[in-house]
């Protein structure tokens, strides 16, 4: 049981690290925002 | 400082300078995939490894792919080590019949995290805990793998600065394979033979039981020490075959083996600065980094050696001779091997903590407050004084980015480094890497200084995990500070040093702290993983962003970074950032202890 706990901890840490990789990449090139539509274009 | 101490420093730096250029040039060729003299004998091994593992060494990986490959490799090897340590009773090469009783679950987690992250913190006594199989396979494998990963990351970060308009920073698998086969393997093979010649044992015998002259029985631990010792030092790993580490005569038999060890520890970190210069097309850039590292190292060596040689006022008050003479070393000899004395012990302490090695030939806990502050500060500034293999260079490049950013702020222009514009994202990533280290060191230190583990309730579960050899022990209940040998500022230094060492992936201990408890094993385990991987990811992100940029031609307004002026600025940034972040902690620990010592001496 304790072994499973620590294995889960290791998997969780590295899982979060992979999310962290893509988080950093997202920070560098944020997803394009939707074009502003509507409103008064006069 | 004695003249002997000065001479040792001069000889050590002389040897280091001698190998930096040829070794650095050699590594440049290895990582560029060029043929070297060793390809004739070892090329088949590289090609065979690629074929067996389905690796295309020419595939240029985007930084995210590079980072995920590194993380997955580390995860799998960590889980392998965890399993092998817990199952050592069922595995071969275990003449002492060690099992899971010696290697509890929390200790196995701590140890697997420790070796995966190149820390090699040891919460246990190796000769009383791990089998030869555990030592040679589940642990030594990381001495190779984690060193190769560190060097690969540094090379990838250099590629970020060196390349232009590229989407990739190299191939992780090719970098690791080339590093292992052409850099680590040949040196480790020859170095292990050199250690054997210097008196280090290499066998698979059970421990020898001897009868002493007084008639008592003594068990003499031994085993395949030389093969472990060489990669331990070369890869800045630091985990000892014996609990006494490099203070043990079987690991470090003589002053000559001590000097050999010191050069090994800094050989790759020093040479990679030249590799950096070669790869970015200007070797002066590498020497500038080397100069900054050497300047920081020299100050630490002088302060530490002088403090230890001066001894303590208590010794002088007790009319004990503290001045070195022909017949005795003077100074503070507590915790030091008489084979090495003060000079070689202080030099070793600054070298091992400047690098992320963590091997020790003296007990840092027994150093004077100022003598002990030097290794602690070396770790707190991120181990950038040559540093760990690869880790030292990418850590220093993080500071270089901050240095050009701050210089840019002062003169009001966009900072550049090596022809690349340093913009918002690069500075964000450099700051993220640095702040994560600070948060881990200070956060865990603060937590362990105040936490009180109750006998009942949710936190009590930490003390009673099934499989923990310490589950029923009273020592793991109550305040975490109850695990310290000393109270007051020295006790605080023990905790501070522990998490600085863990987060910095150093692995040396201040001793005096019983760290083999579920609380410390788990939190130090996290500190080591955070210190390694949470720092590498933003630096790879920075490299990926830089690789995509074009080179900006140098103009009259460009701040030159291949000069002594830049090296001085770099030293200033490292010291100021370290001092501003950690001064309150240092004031509560070694600084107040120093003044207490001085005050007591006057009573």
CA gyration radius of chain B, whole angstroms: 24 Å
Number of strands of chain B: 6
Helix content of chain A: 55-70%
Quickly count the helices of chain B. Answer: 18
Largest sheet of chain B: 2 strands, antiparallel
In round numbers, the mean pLDDT of chain A is 82
Task: State the secondary-structure class of chain A.
Answer: mainly alpha
Secondary-structure element pattern of chain A, one letter each:
H
Order of helices and strands of chain B: HHHHHHHEEHHHHHHHEEHEEHHH
| Percentage of residues in helical conformation of chain B | 55-70%
Report what the structure shows:
The complex is a heterodimer of chains A (about 40) and B (about 600). Chain A has about 40 residues and is mostly helical. Chain A has one helix at about 1-30. Helices cover about 65% and strands about 0% of the residues of chain A. Chain B is globular, with a radius of gyration of 24 Å. Helix content of chain B is about 60%, strand content about 5%. Chain B has 18 helices and six strands. Mean pLDDT of chain B is about 90; it is low at about 465-475. The chains are: A mainly alpha (about 40), B mainly alpha (about 600). The interface of A and B includes residues 1, 9, 14 and 21 of A.
Structural key phrases:
heterodimer, A: mainly alpha, 1 helix, rod-shaped, B: 603 residues, two-stranded antiparallel sheet, 18 helices, globular
Topology:
The complex is a heterodimer of chains A (42) and B (603).
Chain A: H1 2-28
Chain B: H1 3-31, H2 39-53, H3 63-86, H4 105-116, H5 126-129, H6 132-162, H7 172-197, E1 208-211, E2 217-220, H8 225-234, H9 255-279, H10 283-310, H11 313-317, H12 341-354, H13 369-380, H14 391-411, E3 416-417, E4 420-421, H15 424-450, E5 452-453, E6 478-479, H16 488-503, H17 518-547, H18 564-601
Antiparallel strand pairs in B: 1-2, 3-4, 5-6
Helix pairs in contact in B: 1-9, 1-12, 2-7, 3-4, 3-6, 3-17, 4-6, 4-17, 6-7, 6-14, 6-17, 7-8, 9-10, 9-12, 10-12, 10-13, 10-18, 12-13, 13-16, 13-18, 14-15, 14-18, 15-16, 15-17, 16-17, 16-18
């Amino acid at each position: 049981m304790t072994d499973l706990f620590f294995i889960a901890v290791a998997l969780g840490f590295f899982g979060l690290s992979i999310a962290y990789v893509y988080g950093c990449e997202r920070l560098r090139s944020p997803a394009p925002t939707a074009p502003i539509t509507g409103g008064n274009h006069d | 400082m004695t003249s002997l101490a000065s001479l040792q420093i001069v000889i050590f730096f002389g040897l280091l300078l001698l190998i930096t250029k040829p070794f650095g040039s050699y590594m440049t060729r290895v990582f560029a995939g060029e043929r070297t003299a060793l390809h004739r004998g070892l090329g088949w091994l590289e090609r065979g490894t690629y074929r067996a593992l389905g690796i295309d060494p020419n595939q240029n990986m985007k930084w995210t792919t590079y980072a995920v490959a590194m993380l997955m490799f580390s995860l799998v090897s960590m889980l392998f080590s965890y399993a092998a340590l817990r199952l050592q009773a069922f595995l071969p090469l275990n003449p002492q019949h060690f099992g899971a009783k010696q290697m509890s679950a929390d200790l196995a987690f701590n140890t697997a995290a420790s070796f995966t992250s190149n820390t090699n913190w040891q919460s246990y006594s190796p000769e009383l805990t791990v089998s030869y199989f555990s030592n040679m396979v589940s642990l030594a494998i990381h001495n190779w793998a984690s060193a190769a990963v560190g060097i690969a990351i540094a090379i990838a970060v250099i590629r970020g600065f060196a390349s232009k308009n590229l989407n990739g920073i190299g191939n992780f698998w090719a970098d690791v394979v080339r590093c292992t086969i052409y850099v680590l393997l040949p040196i480790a093979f020859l170095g292990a033979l050199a250690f054997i010649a210097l008196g280090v044992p290499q066998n698979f015998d059970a421990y020898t039981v001897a009868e002493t002259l007084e008639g008592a029985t003594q068990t003499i631990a031994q085993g395949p020490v030389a093969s472990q010792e060489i990669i331990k030092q070369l890869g800045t790993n630091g985990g000892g075959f014996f609990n006494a580490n490099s203070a043990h005569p079987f690991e470090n038999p003589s002053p000559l083996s001590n000097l050999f060890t010191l050069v090994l520890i800094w050989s790759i970190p020093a040479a990679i600065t030249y590799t950096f210069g070669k790869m970015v097309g200007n070797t002066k850039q590498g020497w500038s980094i080397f100069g900054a590292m050497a300047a920081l190292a020299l100050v630490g060596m002088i302060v530490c050696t002088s403090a230890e040689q001066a001894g303590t006022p208590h010794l002088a008050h007790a009319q004990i001779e503290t001045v070195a003479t022909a017949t005795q070393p003077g100074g503070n000899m507590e915790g030091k091997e008489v084979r090495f004395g003060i000079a070689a012990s202080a030099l070793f302490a600054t070298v091992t903590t400047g690098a992320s090695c963590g091997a020790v030939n003296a007990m840092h806990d027994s150093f004077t407050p100022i003598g002990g502050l030097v290794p602690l500060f070396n770790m707190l500034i991120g181990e950038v004084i040559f540093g760990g293999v690869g880790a030292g260079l990418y850590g220093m490049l993080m500071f270089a980015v901050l240095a050009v950013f701050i210089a840019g702020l002062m003169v009001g222009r966009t900072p550049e480094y090596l022809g690349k514009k340093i913009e918002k994202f690069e500075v964000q990533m450099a700051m993220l890497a640095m702040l994560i280290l600070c948060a881990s060191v200070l956060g865990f230190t603060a937590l362990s200084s105040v936490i009180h583990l109750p006998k009942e309730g949710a936190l009590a579960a930490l003390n009673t995990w099934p499989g923990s050899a310490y589950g029923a022990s009273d020592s793991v209940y109550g305040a975490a500070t109850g695990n310290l040998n000393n109270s007051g500022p020295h006790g605080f230094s023990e905790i501070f040093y522990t998490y600085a060492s863990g987060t910095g992936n150093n692995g040396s201990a201040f001793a005096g702290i019983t760290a083999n408890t579920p609380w410390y094993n788990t939190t130090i385990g996290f500190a080591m993983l955070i210190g390694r991987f949470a720092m590498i990811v933003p630096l790879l992100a920075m490299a990926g962003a830089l690789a995509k940029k074009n080179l900006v031609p140098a103009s009259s307004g460009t701040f030159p970074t291949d000069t002594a002026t830049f090296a001085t600025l770099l030293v200033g940034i490292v010291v100021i950032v370290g001092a501003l972040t950690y001064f309150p902690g240092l004031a509560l620990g070694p600084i107040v202890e120093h003044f207490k010592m001085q005050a007591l001496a006057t009573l």
